[in-house]
Structures are given as structure tokens and as C-alpha cells.
Amino acid sequence: MASRFNPQAVDSHWQKAWKDSQTFAADTSSAKPKSFVLEMFPYPSGRIHMGHVRNYTMGDVLARYRRMTGHEVLHPMGWDAFGMPAENAAMEKKVHPGEWTRANIAAMRSQLKRLGFALDWTRELATCEPDYYGQEQALFLDLFAAGLVYRKESAVNWDPVDMTVLANEQVIDGKGWRSGAMVERRKLSQWFLKITDFADDLLAGLDELDQWPEKVRLMQENWIGKSRGLRFRFTLNEPITGQSQLQVFTTRPDTIFGASFVAVAPDHPLAEAVASKDSAAADFIAQCQAGGTSAADIESAEKLGFDTGLKAAHPFQAEWELPVYIANFVLMDYGTGAVFGVPAHDQRDLDFARKYGLPVRRVVADGDETDPDYAGDEAFSGDGPLVNSRFLDGMDVESAKSAVITRAEEEGWGEGTTEWRLRDWGVSRQRYWGTPIPIIHCEDCGPIGVPKDQLPIVLPDDIDFETPGNPLDRHPTWSKIDCPECGKAARRETDTLDTFVDSSWYFIRFASQPDDQPFDKAEAEAWLPVGQYIGGVEHAILHLLYARFVTRALNRIGRLDVKEPFAGLFTQGMVTHETYQMADGSWLSPDEVQRDGADWVRIEGGEPVKTGRIEKMSKSKKNVVDPDPIVDQYGADAVRWFMLSDSPPERDLEWSENGIEGAWRFMQRLWRLIDSDSEASGEDATLDRKLHQTIAGVSEDIEALSFNKAVAKIYELTNAIEKADPSASRDTAVHTLVRLVAPMAPHLAEQAWQDMGESGMIADADWPDADPALLVEDEVTIAVQINGKLRDTVSAAKGAPKADLEALALGSDKVQRQLDGATPKKIIVVPDRLVNIVA
Ligand code: ANZ
Ligand code: ZN
């Protein structure tokens, strides 16, 4: 056995051995209990980064541990391969999105393979391949047939120069990212999935997800946003297009006596009616259409209004008239598209009221402050007793809400409602690199689903990326098709699906991937739900919600019995690194700098370098460390070890040269220890106990994903073995230690296992069992008190008789010094705990 661990030789040897024997291929027909371990699949951007390495290492440790504890494990990998970066690359580098994506996948796959992950590569999938997205089209058609897909007009970001629809992230400060033109809001007919049908169930289901972080459940709850509200009607002073009532929606009916205006959305029928007679109103509405469609764009835009001259009568006092505005911050597709404004208690309304000189009336007391005229510039949205509100005075906000709803219902001018923040999921994207929506538009038959025997609808390859806009729309022939029902010339849908659709069912396809359907029910259910899902907290809302929705939708149409896709969820912290900056503010990467005493300098040129904050690795700050050269230098196991050892997995991990070197040194220490296998005889009871406590502790820590704690226990055991004299116990401890580190440092463990003469691969070996008899401490610490004050502690055998403990306590030097010759009056002994001497 070589005395130095040489990962350059060992890593690739074992990676090949695992591959040749298909060690990690999951067998659905296995009788063992099944365990589905999944990390969020990566977007093929081109390179694996340290965040991936950390994420996949955690999942890998769990997957390998589960195998060793007798489970049949499914641990797959694939690629979330559609999306805009590929189209941007096509435009910038003149390379086809498919070519760019597939090259990236190849590069990242070989990077991942070098880390020795226990992955079932036979199930690898990429969402951009027809064998995946064709099955997604089949699922879409099933949901369409079940009435869970519909079409409606909805606003998009329109770039008037590039003549194209922009995604929200392509709108920067209200301007198109390429053209720099002011973006307009336009209406387009788009496809929606009925996630709101499941709002109640998605909310209720959160209660049962007890292996999810509380924080993520809360984020989902807020996103779904169930609230109680009131819809009610204001009577207008003059009817407009025959309507004398205007319906509004509020979640704060308690504030009704603080109302100072009513406002409608620019695309509300009332606004349109006013505009048809008043060109100033029409101009104002046109002005509102500029700017992005995202909630953030609307939130940050200046609050603008147009006074229609109409008046609305207060529901509790008809002579109290409120002006009716058209306002840019009111959205047509929320509530009723009309609101009443309460400036003292809503910041938006306050900004608006200050701008247009409207009254600001306080109706909820803020501590001692009850003055009806509010002069400040911060709205108070907290709780407090109602004031200046007639019959509501003195009530808290909740009771006042109920009181107003009750009155509205009794008097017939409004109804209490349950409102959801959750909207239906708009899945149409006017882009090329995505799943084509399998719909055909016929003038006579309307939109109809593509017959399933025509799937997959494959993306055309001959695409021109020179002109902006949706290439599918411009393609000369692709969209031309005859109507499958009447045979008339018709047109294919040229929108593609939001890439979140691709990632909302990939875990099912991992579990079962037949050629002729999206998945086989029984086979998928053999694995689902995913036992442990691991990924970044940036996906805590949308991805997880969409996956939960799609699973429920498949359940409703009878394709699956499970409803929740992920039983356990873990969100890991980020990998961070110090940043380095030159005097002129430009960033330097870690390999461009070096230490000079206590300072840092640029390697080339020697200029002084300022070290900046520790931040998430990012290209813009150049503080990225590429895994490849690190693996070259230290081997996969040291990298994996460092990823696990330094911080709790939910916290950020700071990448450091010292850290990786420490991990490397520990690999060498382990190796030397294994090399010291002595074939000695004799027992070492202390070491036996330490070993079994470590087995129990490491098992518990891995189950809880507390990898850093498991690592700390392995360090302790290693120290204990190093200090112990040769014995049979010591040899057992070394052999067992190899099994304990196998999930974390699998290459070293395989090599050691073989060199120690064990048979088979350690990946297939059993996890060691902890002997319960050795887990009990048989030494206890006894507190020795004099007159109730702690004076000393002594160790004694567990269960030692009272007389022995008394003798031990009196034998203590400290106790004798304190007693100073006095005879104790009484001695109280609590077995295994304490001795109190009364003097
Ligand atoms: C009066 C009021 C007083 C309101 C107050 C808030 C605070 P959430 O809770 O997020 O659901 N609103 C209603 N429909 C709207 C629309 N289409 N566009 C913009 N704003 C709209 O928000 C509900 C509140 O948002 C409603 O309650 C309404 O303003 C406003 F102190 O009514 B509130
Ligand atoms: Zn037709």
C-alpha cells in the first residue's frame, strides 16, 4: 500500500469501476425499501460552479448512506436545458442554441463525473430533447382535455423597436435590454394553467410537509396569499354607460371611514367609457401603458392619477362624496380592478393623496396618536383600536373588519369574500428555445390540441437569429399545417412553454421513462414522492409551487396517486469567497492575487489590492473559484470533504485555500491510519465505546443532513484511533472508519477497502451498526457540594453504591480543605448525580 494517497490515480480508477458495474443504476423491481434522493437539476450554462459542487455533494452523501443502510436508491441527474441564455448566445455568438446547450451539457457532465457522484446516469435527461419535451406536450394535452388549460388576453412587455415581446428580466429600468427603447404594455392572447383551482389544497398541504423548512412553507403560504376581503358597490353620482354602481375590492373594510378617493385601473370599463368622451383621459391611459408588466415595475413607478370628475357616495353616508380617479397602480386583473384609497393606512394611497391634495384621515390609532388629521409621510398599517370611525370606534382591526362585512351583507351593498393572491400560471413565451405548445389554430374549429400520434412537435433547426422577435413566428413553413379536424389550412401555435413547466415534472420522468408515454403510473409511484429534495432557496416559491401543482393536476386526472412531490426539502447555503479590488475599483479574481505579509498584491505587477467583503461567488465580482483545477490538484474527495466540513449545510460556506488544504491533509491522515493496520490482538474498551458512539452519532447526523457535525465526529474518532495502542479493537476501528467516511470520501474509501483485503466494493458494503450496549456511558460525573455549594466533581462508575460515592467525596482534597477538620453533620447522596455534605 502506498504511503501517500494519490487521487490522480485512484479517482478515475473507481469512477470507471462504478460505471462498468453499473453500481448506481436504480432497480425499480428491487425488494429493498426505496429511497429517492434528488438535487435540483442544473441549467447547462457551461461550467459547474462551487454551488453545484456543494449541492450535489450533500445529496451524494445521503444517497450513498442510504445504499449502505439497505435501500434501493434512485439518485439521477439531468439538465434544465431550455431557456433564454441559449438564445442570447445564438444572437451574440452566432451559434445554434441546441449546439451551444449540448456542448455545455457535455462539458458539465464530465466535470460532474470527476467528482465521483453516485448517480444513475442511465436515466440522464435533457429537457431540450424531443424525447423529453414531446412527452411534456402529451401531458399538456391531457391537462388541456381536462379543462386545466385555457386561453386569455394578458399583458406582455412589448419592445417597439425590436418588435418583440420581452421577458420581465429583459426589461431594465423600463427599457428593452437590446434596443434601449421604452417598453410598452400590450395585450396578447396567452395560455394559462389553472393553478388557482388548487389554491386551497396547495395551502392545506403545507401543514403536512413537516420535513420542509418552516421558512419555505411560510413563503409558499404568503405567495398563495389567502385573505378575507369585502367586495362592495359604490353608487356613482351619474351613470356611465348605463352603470350607476362601481364595485371595489378591499382587504381592509375596517378602514372605510378613512376613505378619501376611489380609483379604477386604466383598462377598467369605466376608464374606457370616460376615455371615449374625454381625450385627456385617453391620453392618460395611453401613458399608463408604457413601462414593464412585472409587479416590481408597477410598484416602483410614480403614482399617477386622472380625476374623472365622477363622484362615489360613501356607503355609510350618501352625502359624503369621494372623487373617482383612473390610477396607474390599480391592476385590472386583481380583485375587481377598482379600489377605495385610505391614505393614512396605505403607503401607496398616501403618496397618491399627497400628490393630488386629498384628505388624509386617521382611523386606526397608532399608540397614543388618534388625531383625525394625519400630517406624516409614512402610512400606519399596524393594528390598534379604531378611531374617528363611528360604530367601529374602540374595536381592533379584525373585529372592525367583521363588523363592516356584516353590515354590508345585512344592508345588501357588499359581500365578504375569500381572496387569493395566487394567479393562474401564464405559460406562453414568445421565444424559440422552449417546448412548442401543441396546439393548432383553425379559423373554423378554434384552437385544438395536436393529435397525440403527431407528437413530438419538434423545433425546427433552420432558424434565423439575426432579426429580433420570435423565430418560430417568422419561420417560412413551420407553422403551416392543416387542421386535424376539418382539413382546412391552419396555423401552429408558435409560443413555447415557460421553462418552469419543464422542471415541474422532471422528477416523475426520472422515476419512469417509457418511450410511449410521459411515465408509467406504477413505476413512478414505486419511487415517488422524492424522499429528500435539495436545492437553493431561490427556488423556494415558484419552482416548488409549480411542481406541487402539476403533481396535483396529474393526480386529479388519474395519472398519479401521489399529490405531494417532495416529502423532504432542504435548502442549502451559498458558497462565498472574499473579493479583491484594485485602487481603480476593478475586480481581480483569486488566482490573480497573492499575499504579501499581511497585505494582498496583484501577482502581475505587484500593485496593492484591497480585500473586499465575502460574497456569493459571482462572475461580476470575479470571486469565482472553478472546481476543475481544484479537483486536479487535490482530488475529488478533498473537495467533497471541504464542502461538507466547514459550516452547517444551511449556512453559507466561505471557500478558502486553507480550508481545502486542511481537507487534503485530513485525507492523507486517514490514509496513513489505514496503512497502519497492525493485525494486533487484545481489546481496547475505551476505543470500542468511542467507535460505537461515533457510528451512532454519524448515522444520526447524516439522516439530519448535519454533515458538518458528522465530520466533526469523524475527526474525534480519528484522533482517538491515532492515540490508541495497537489492538484488535484498533484494527476494527480503522476498518469501520473507512465505512463511515465512504459516503463523503468514496474514492479513498474504495481504495482502502480493497487494500485492506475486504471483498466487493465499499459502495455496496453495509453501514456499520452501533452496539447499543456500548453507547451507554459507564462513567458518571458526581457533583460534590458542601452546604449546597459546588466544591468539586469526581468520576465514579455508573450505579456505584452510596457508601462508595460518600467515600469518594470525602476523599477529595478540595473538600478536605473546605471542611478544615470539621466533622460533617449529615451527608446526602443522590446516586449517579451528587453528594451534598452538610457541615
Ligand atoms: C382599502 C385599503 C385600506 C386597502 C388600507 C389596503 C390598506 P392584498 O392585501 O395584497 O390582497 N387593491 C385591491 N384591488 C386592487 C387592484 N386591482 N390593484 C391595486 N390594488 C388593489 O391587497 C388588497 C388591497 O390592495 C385592497 O385593500 C386594496 O386596497 C388594494 F389601509 O382597500 B385596500
Ligand atoms: Zn378546422
Plain-language structure description:
The radius of gyration is 34 Å and the shape is globular. The protein is 35% helix and 22% strand. The chain binds ligand ANZ and zinc ion.
The percentage helix is 25-40%
Quote the beta fraction: 15-25%
Largest sheet: 7 strands, mixed
Determine the N-to-C terminus distance: 65 Å
Overall geometry: globular
Q: How would you state the average pLDDT, rounded?
A: 93
Q: Tell me which ligands are bound.
A: ligand ANZ, zinc ion
Number of E strands:
35
* pLDDT < 50 stretches: none
Discrete helix count = 26
**What structural category characterises the helix and strand content?**
alpha+beta
Radius of gyration: 34 Å
Features:
single chain; 839 residues; alpha+beta; six-stranded mixed beta sheet; binds ligand ANZ; binds zinc ion
List the helices and strands and how they pair.
Layout: H1 7-20, E1 34-39, H2 50-68, E2 72-74, E3 78-79, H3 84-93, H4 97-113, E4 125-126, H5 130-145, E5 149-159, E6 164-166, E7 171-172, E8 175-176, E9 184-193, H6 199-206, H7 214-224, E10 226-240, E11 243-250, E12 261-264, H8 269-277, H9 279-288, H10 295-300, E13 305-314, E14 317-327, E15 338-341, H11 347-356, H12 397-411, E16 414-420, E17 425-426, E18 428-429, E19 439-442, E20 446-449, H13 471-474, E21 480-482, E22 489-492, E23 496-497, H14 499-502, H15 506-511, H16 521-527, E24 532-536, H17 542-556, E25 569-572, E26 575-581, E27 587-588, E28 593-596, E29 599-602, E30 608-616, H18 627-634, H19 636-645, E31 653-654, H20 657-675, H21 685-703, H22 707-723, H23 728-741, H24 746-755, E32 779-786, E33 789-797, H25 802-810, H26 813-819, E34 826-830, E35 834-838
Parallel strand pairs: 1-2, 1-24, 3-4, 12-14, 24-25, 26-31, 32-35
Antiparallel strand pairs: 5-6, 5-9, 7-8, 9-17, 10-11, 10-13, 10-16, 12-15, 13-14, 18-23, 19-20, 19-22, 21-22, 26-27, 26-30, 28-29, 29-30, 32-33, 34-35
Helix pairs in contact: 1-24, 2-19, 3-4, 6-7, 8-9, 18-19, 19-20, 21-22, 21-23, 22-23, 23-24
The structure holds ligand ANZ and zinc ion (ZN).
